[in-house]
């Protein structure tokens, strides 16, 4: 089934630990995004990639890094987790970076940093 | 700054009609999206408006007025499965999406 797969589904992580959230899509979309969703706030963009080999910073990039070695994969890494990074993380893709194509979302990763 | 406003929560009755409003102030405008998000699930795309007017898609319609910075999502013949959060998002001059906090819609029998 075409779509976006995120792993893990949920994770409890000790502060200071390193963690990589995985995201894979099979729709051959050029643009990919990482968002975090917190109660009472809109989705906030962490990092994005308009095409393989390029990445950019979103609204809340500090403490996170990404890579885009190929079209399908867009992992998000927390180098040293802090409790404020407790959130639900969504990976998304679209077939255009011009902002007029709908986003397709993965099912999310619920991360708790203790 | 850029801002999207939508009501935090609304309640409606099964079979009725509900209108969810969204007002926005952004640097530029390249379209407005509505997404539906059931609790614990991913957002899913509902509609896209870039020109003024009403777009109808089955039981759901979305309206846009660019001069007023205003949109609404109209849901007709409400069903229990419509209980969800509805997210409004605007594509700004840099084609970045600015998201509202979402409106939680509660449907009562």
Would you kindly provide a written description of the structure presented here, covering whatever features stand out?
Chain A has 114 residues and is mainly β. In chain A, 0% of the residues lie in helices and 45% in strands. Chain A is built from no helices and eleven strands. Chain A has strands spanning 4-7, 10-13, 19-25, 31-37, 44-49, 56-57, 64-66, 76-78, 87-94, 104-105, 109-113. In chain A, the strands form two sheets. In chain A, strands 2, 4, 5, 6, 9, 10 and 11 form a seven-stranded mixed sheet that branches. In chain A, a hairpin with a 6-residue loop joins strand 5 (44-49) and strand 6 (56-57). Chain A is globular and about 35 Å long. In chain B, strand 7 (60-65) and strand 8 (70-75) form a beta hairpin. Chain B is 0% helix and 57% strand. With 109 residues, chain B is mostly beta strands. The mean pLDDT of chain B is 96. Chains A and B meet through strand 10 of A and strand 5, strand 9 and strand 10 of B.
Structure summary:
The complex is a heterodimer of chains A (114) and B (109). Chain A is an all-beta fold.
What keyword list fits this structure?
heterodimer; A: 114 residues; mainly beta; seven-stranded mixed β-sheet; four-stranded antiparallel β-sheet; 0% helix; B: 109 residues; six-stranded mixed β-sheet; five-stranded antiparallel β-sheet; 11 strands
Shape of chain A: globular
- Largest interface in this structure: A-B, 19 and 25 residues
Number of strands of chain A: 11
Shape of chain B, please?
Answer: globular
How much of the sequence lies in strands of chain B comes to over 45%
Task: Record the SSE blueprint.
The complex is a heterodimer of chains A (about 110) and B (about 110).
Chain A: E1 4-7, E2 10-13, E3 19-25, E4 31-37, E5 44-49, E6 56-57, E7 64-66, E8 76-78, E9 87-94, E10 104-105, E11 109-113
Parallel strand pairs in A: 2-11
Antiparallel strand pairs in A: 1-3, 3-8, 4-5, 4-9, 5-6, 7-8, 9-10, 9-11
Chain B: E1 3-5, E2 9-13, E3 18-25, E4 32-37, E5 44-49, E6 53-57, E7 60-65, E8 70-75, E9 84-91, E10 97-99, E11 103-108
Parallel strand pairs in B: 2-11
Antiparallel strand pairs in B: 1-3, 3-8, 4-5, 4-9, 6-7, 7-8, 9-10, 9-11
């Amino acid at each position: 089934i075409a779509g976006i797969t995120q792993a893990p589904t949920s994770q409890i992580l000790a502060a200071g630990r390193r963690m990589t959230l995985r995201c894979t899509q099979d729709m051959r979309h050029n643009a990919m995004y990482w968002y975090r969703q917190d109660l009472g706030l809109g989705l906030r963009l962490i990092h994005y990639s308009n095409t393989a080999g390029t990445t950019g910073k979103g609204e809340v990039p500090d403490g996170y890094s990404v890579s885009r070695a190929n079209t399908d994969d867009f992992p998000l890494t927390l180098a040293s987790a802090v409790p404020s990074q407790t959130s639900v993380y969504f990976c998304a893709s679209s077939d255009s970076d011009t902002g007029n194509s709908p986003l397709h979302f993965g099912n999310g990763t619920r991360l708790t940093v203790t | 700054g850029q801002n999207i406003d939508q009501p935090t929560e609304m309640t409606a009755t099964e079979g009725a009609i509900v209108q969810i409003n969204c007002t926005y102030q952004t640097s530029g405008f390249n379209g407005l999206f509505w997404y539906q998000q059931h609790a614990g699930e991913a957002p899913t795309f509902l509609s896209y408006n870039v020109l003024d007017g009403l777009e109808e898609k089955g039981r759901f319609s979305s309206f846009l007025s660019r001069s007023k910075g205003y949109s609404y999502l109209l849901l007709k013949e409400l069903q229990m499965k419509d209980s969800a959060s509805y997210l409004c998002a605007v594509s700004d001059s840099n084609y970045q999406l600015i998201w509202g906090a979402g409106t939680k819609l509660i449907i009562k029998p």
